[in-house]
Amino acid sequence: MGKILFIVIALWLIFTILKRYFNNVNSSEDKQASKRSEDMVQCHRCGIHMPKSDSLVVNDQYYCCAEHGKDQDV
Hints:
It is rod-shaped and about 85 Å long. The mean pLDDT is 85. The protein has two domains: 1-37; 38-74, Wheat Germ Agglutinin (Isolectin 2), domain 1, CATH 3.30.60. The strands form two sheets. A two-stranded antiparallel ribbon has the order 1-2. A two-stranded antiparallel ribbon has the order 3-4. By secondary structure, it is an alpha+beta fold. The protein has helices at 2-36, 66-70, and strands spanning 40-42, 49-51, 56-58, 61-63. The protein contains two helices and four strands.
């Protein structure tokens, strides 16, 4: 009887530890994913979509490269 009780408690303890571990791993992945998400913008000239941080802004318009934005300089 003592061995069965010991096995049940050991299995419960292992299950609880694994559950907490996987919850922590999933929550950290969700946090990293939210950090990686970024607004997307569209090039005013060619229409390609890109992350806002990679775009070039000229006269409040977004461009994918300097070549597409250079004709619009004022």
